[in-house]
Specification:
With 497 residues, this protein is an alpha/beta fold. The protein folds into 2 domains: 266 residues, Aldehyde Dehydrogenase, Chain A, domain 1, CATH 3.40.605.10; 185 residues, Aldehyde Dehydrogenase, Chain A, domain 2, CATH 3.40.309.10. It has a 7-stranded mixed β-sheet with strand order 14-15-16-13-12-18-19, sandwiched between helices. Helix 2 crosses helix 6 and helix 4 packs parallel to helix 5.
């Protein structure tokens, strides 16, 4: 099915005639798939199908919608290992992580299916007698979903399962670098028996994405990606008064205080900085160490980081996979040079790996900069690679001030055994997520996910809060008094008791 979109329950050729390739970043000569670079006309076809299907899908009782979603979750569970290996081939991250990617989608499927029996509204007393006031949720309409490449199934699942549970229909454009994995995800819904037109997949690049954002029949835009792209989407969709959910960049700090378990904190920093080769919006990119433990911590950390094995994510002994593509590799090289010029001290890595299998793909060594200060670009800017900046501080107040001194606010972490330090950090760190004695990565599907400042627009995916993105509130007043009652004018009296 290479070269086909999924529209109205069928795999169809794109009308654009253009294509692009998805390749294995560990072995660049391996083509994983050839996909259509869809045009505005292709998107229009998908939107028409989703709009028509919405009128039927929204009227199916929510628990019945949930049965289909649960079946999709069961299919994901059955195919977990195969899907994980496909994702590793397409995007490079190690297979243990891609299995976790699928598991997150499974968890989200089961959670969203359960919530179809819990789409609670509110009832409240009326100010007038013999009158009932209540509220309930209704679907919004057609949802446009545009996602990044680094979680090809988990991140779309965070948006698509709750949107479908609420009764919306979908037009989905995945990142080009994760298109084959997205196709496998859609095939799961097809097998689960989702009605025609409810979920439509359109591959493509700029034209397809722009058309989705600006299409008047798409009521919601759910986007995960870079901050600057998010700004442009928000501006364009805002002119059309669309509802928009933005999950954008991060520059996430891990603080380590003197009372911390240093071995545990080292484990967390390694996983946070180099998991997914540093290519997560929640990756640990700034390590803030108290002066009292700095030397001891760095001795342990550098020894462990040097032992990490970089290679093909399909191999069991690989710790760190390739970066996604050549532009990202060049970006990592650029930021290493920036760090050197700014006066930071490169104490590990900082180089493109070459020789043997490394020549087949895009491999960059785990990198550490010390003597980093808040004025440096490597401190402030999202790199999205395996590059860690280390900052020395002398107090918790300074650590929090340094952690907050960037424009992003997604995830944060503190390692301490002092409960007062932990509680202060949870209250004062400017982030949507704070971990205590755990790394900056590891969100769970039943809890809100999102950030502050330049990390988004306040939307929260995951958990119960995601339904605020994909539903409208309807308020209903039922007056059974048998007479005209005027709110704020008529008043209750003792005679009516």
């Amino acid at each position: 099915m290479d070269g086909k979109n999924y529209i109205n329950g069928k795999w169809v050729d794109a009308r654009s005639g253009r294509t692009f390739e998805s390749r294995n970043p560990a072995h660049w000569n391996e083509v994983i798939g050839v996909l259509p670079d869809s045009s505005a006309e292709d998107v229009q076809q998908a939107v028409e199908a989703a709009k028509a299907a919405f009128e039927k899908w929204r009227r199916i009782p929510a628990p019945k919608r949930g049965e289909i979603l649960r079946r999709a979750g069961e299919i994901l569970l059955e195919k977990k290992k195969d899907l994980a290996r496909l994702m590793t081939r397409e995007i490079g991250k190690i297979v243990k992580e891609t299995e976790g990617d699928v598991q997150e989608a499974i968890d989200t499927a089961f959670y969203a299916a359960g919530e179809t029996r819990r789409l609670f509204g509110y009832t409240t007393p009326s100010e007038l007698p013999d009158k009932l006031a209540l509220t309930f949720r209704q679907p919004v309409g057609v949802v446009g979903v545009i996602t990044a490449w680094n979680f090809p199934i988990a991140v779309p699942a965070w948006k698509i399962f709750p949107a479908l549970a609420a009764g919306n229909t979908i037009v989905f454009k995945p990142a080009p670098d994760a298109s084959v994995s997205a196709r496998a995800f859609v095939e799961v819904f097809e097998e689960a028996g989702l009605p025609e037109g409810v979920f439509n997949l359109v591959f493509g690049t700029l034209e397809a994405g722009k058309t989705i954002v600006e299409h008047p029949d798409i009521q919601v835009i759910a986007f995960t990606g870079g901050t600057e792209t998010g700004r442009r989407i928000y501006e364009a969709a805002g002119r059309l008064l669309k509802r928009v959910s933005l999950e954008l960049g991060g520059k996430n700090p891990q603080i380590v205080m003197p009372s911390a378990d240093l071995d545990l904190a080292v484990d967390g920093a390694l996983w946070g900085a180099y998991g997914t080769t540093g290519q997560r919006c929640t990756s640990t990119s700034r390590l803030i160490l108290h002066n009292d433990i700095y030397d001891a911590f760095m001795e342990k950390f550098l020894a462990r980081a040097r032992s990490l094995k970089v290679g093909d994510g399909l191999l069991e002994d690989t710790d760190v996979g390739p970066v996604i593509n050549k532009p990202q590799l060049e970006k990592d090289v650029m930021y290493v040079e920036i760090g050197k010029k700014e006066g930071a001290r490169l104490t590990l890595g900082g180089e493109v790996l070459k020789g043997g299998m490394y020549d087949e793909g895009y491999f960059f060594s785990p990198t550490v900069f010390e003597d980093v200060t808040p004025e440096m670009r490597i401190f402030k800017e999202e790199i999205f690679g395996p590059i860690l900046s280390v900052i020395r501080v002398s107090s918790l107040d300074e650590a929090i001030r340094v952690a907050n001194a960037v424009s992003y606010g997604l995830s944060s972490s503190i390692y301490t055994h002092d409960v007062r330090e932990a509680m202060r950090a949870t209250q004062e760190l400017e982030s949507g997520i704070t971990y205590v004695n755990a790394p900056t990565i590891g969100a769970e599907s039943h809890l809100p996910f999102g950030g502050v400042k330049d990390t988004g627009n306040g939307a929260r995916e995951g958990g119960w809060t995601v339904f605020d993105i994909f539903t409208e509130w309807k308020t209903v007043y039922i007056d059974y008094s048998g007479r005209l009652q005027k709110a704020q004018i008529d008043t209750w009296s003792d005679d009516e008791a």
